[in-house]
Amino acid sequence: MNRTITMNLSGIIFHIEEDAYDKLNKYLAAIRGYFSNSESKDEIMTDIESRIAEMLQSKVSQTKQAVLMADVESVIAVMGKPEDFAEENSQGNNNESPRAETQYQYSGKRRRVFRDPDEKILGGVCSGIANYFDFDPIYLRGAFAVSFFVFGTGFLLYIILWMIIPEAKTTAEKLEMRGEKVDINNIGKAVSEEFDDLKKRVNNWEQKVNTNENKERVKSSAQRVGGFITDVFENLFKVFGKIFSILLIMVGVALLVGLLATLFGSGTISAFSAPGDTIRFSLYEFTDVILPESLSPQLIVIGLILFLGIPLSSMIYSGIKYLFGFKGQNKIVKYTANVLWLLGLGIMIYIGIEIGNDFAEHATTKQNITITQPQGQIMYLDLKPNTEEDFEDKHNYRRKIHLGDWYILSKDDQRFRLAYPSFTVVASDNNNFELVAVKSAEGFDKKEAAYRAKNIEYSVTQIDSTILFNSYYDIQAADKLRGQELKLILKVPLNKVIFLSKRMEKIIYDIDNVNDTYDGDMINRRWIMTTRGLECLDCQGLENVTKHDTIIIPAAPTVPALPK
After folding, report:
1. What's the first-to-final CA gap in the chain, in angstroms?
2. 365-384 pLDDT, tens per residue?
3. Model-level pTM?
4. Measuring CA to CA, how many Å separate 241 from each of 233, 250, 319?
5. Cβ atoms within 10 A of the Cβ of 6, count?
6. What are the b/e assignments for 76-101, b being 16+ CB within 10 Å?
């Protein structure tokens, strides 16, 4: 029974007899000593160890797991002794005949197919096959080139061969690819030749690069490449600049035409967008209701022309100038335009300050609207239906263009008609229903704001136990649009009931109730006033509540308008 040692050779683990290990270790040490003066000694030893490990690996199996002395001697016989290699070199240097075959020479040549990495054009397939069959690879490359055009079969075959043929990476594999004997002699020569060839190429390259001619050539090439890249980017910037200048001109012209059309032509401003029923304002009409009496509408026209028109004109001029390559610049025109724009800015700031002063103070007034008490316990609430003043459009009314918190319905010389008032419900402090109108407005001072609030006009219609609310309220045209708002508060006595029709959804706003029901879910239901607040009588199984029909009441006398 012999002792075995675990050995790692070229990344492969072996179990080897102790005496075989000693012999192999001395053999490798001797080889390392013979190549100690070689510049490529590390590469040579790596390839030799890799080849020895490959040969030893072929000698172990499931039934024979340890490397024996006979195996090591067989490997040494194939690889050759270092002194034989030294003797051959000495004879070669003295121009003597080649040495005689020793007892360690490998009798046959092992040839394998590999892809040749040193002579490859694509993957080294053709040069590798040519090495195996010992012919010039140019013929095989020509055959593949022709077959590329025959339904692509050549390309497919080349890819398949590329995938299945391994690349010759080590020196031993390259020797096997060429059918040369894989021993110390050939491995050392091959590695040394590769190293010397690489060193020679590097030296030649350094000599060529260091010559003045090559330095000038490199410098000239670098300048040409830099000039080419610069020209490409300059042309790209010019193309994008032309496109941008065209867009600049188009946008500027469109905006300028729109501005001039609004100021002097038929340009209008839509108050809301009900299909087929759109009310429009000209700019003069619009400014007439916004500007204070002390300011003329023509002033805002001049301010807009200077403040917006000059930048738009400059935008168009800049686009034309860049598009056609104009270089000239008139400083007088430039400074004049800047001064006029600053003048327009000053006018707009002045107008803004004057309008802001007219919103300096806020005032609120309350007016009681006289209503008749219902004969029963319930009061029905609805909006006026089917009147020319009613603003009824269930699909579009929430998309109306509005100013502030209200919508403009119409305007004439005497008044504005706005929609919608807001409506809420609170508990009454007595046994009667009461309707209160809370009117508010803005003004230069409290007195002016209160006067404008009192001028808000609103009326309701009542028939028996039904109150019909208008969906609009009117303000005097002379009062201007100064944040006028109208809030309706219905005071409901304890244990009395109200019914909210579907149309009331347009004006109800944040009605408190003990059920925490949203305003939109309060319609078409009865609500009783309790000590805790409004409580729903129809909300058990909210999804299954039977919807009441909207109240339709014949025309009746209108409750007189509130006094101013």
Report:
1. 127
2. 999 999 999 988 899 999 88
3. 0.48
4. 12, 14, 9
5. 9
6. bebbbbbebbeebeeeeeeeeeeeee
